[in-house]
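Feature request, filed as a ticket because there's no other form

It would be nice if the structure record came with a short human-readable summary line next to the tokens. Right now we just get the raw output. Example of a typical job, pasted below so the devs can see what we mean:
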Amino acid sequence: MPKNKTKDSNKKNILELENKLKKKDEEIARLQNLLKKADSEIGIKAGYASEGASYTFIQLEAANKELFKLNQELEKTRAELEQRVAERTQELQSRVDELEKFYQLTVGREVKMTEIKEENEELKQKIKELEEKITEK
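Raw output as currently delivered:
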């Protein structure tokens, strides 16, 4: 797969995971608000009726369980994302290292070729000078 397509695909995957995390964060915030509301209702209803208070406690417990489950999912998704980023970073670093080695080899080859060409020109010039000396005698 071409490098740009892989890069674009990885960016897309990361954006999708970030969007999932954002949605989970929003859901957690919603549940936290629900917990705060339930907590304030418990304080109000507890003073008036035990039935209302126990119903609010049930709501609070359900919201707390869902919040806990969402937090676990969020942590799992974050860990997966961090792992994927670490793996991708390692892959990219490996490719960079390969490209740097290739660059050094090609640059080294080009420098050597330039030196050989210069030496070749010098030798041609010396041969020409020697031929001129021979022909003069």
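Something like this underneath would help us a lot:
The CA atoms of residues 2 and 48 lie 69 Å apart.
The chain has a mean pLDDT of 80.
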